[in-house]
């Protein structure tokens, strides 16, 4: 659950940069969005691994 909370916090943190990129055309904000999405991808993969491990340990 801790990592899922980190995903939610990261998504909330990048929201302003997403708006700046798409609405104002701010290229620097786009770079920050890309980095945040990469970090989210890593967190999501870690969560997937934990879920798989927990699911398989119950068998």
TrEMBL record:
InterPro entries: Hc1. It holds the Pfam family Hc1. Might have a role analogous to that of eukaryotic histone proteins. Belongs to the histone H1/H5 family. HCT subfamily. This is Histone H1. The lineage of its organism: Bacteria, Pseudomonadati, Bacteroidota, Sphingobacteriia, Sphingobacteriales.
């Amino acid at each position: 659950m801790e990592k899922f909370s980190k995903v939610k916090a990261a998504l909330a943190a990048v929201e302003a940069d997403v708006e700046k990129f798409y609405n104002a055309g701010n290229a620097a904000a786009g770079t920050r969005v890309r980095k945040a999405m990469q970090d989210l991808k890593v967190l999501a993969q870690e969560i997937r691994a934990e879920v798989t491990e927990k699911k398989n340990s119950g068998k």
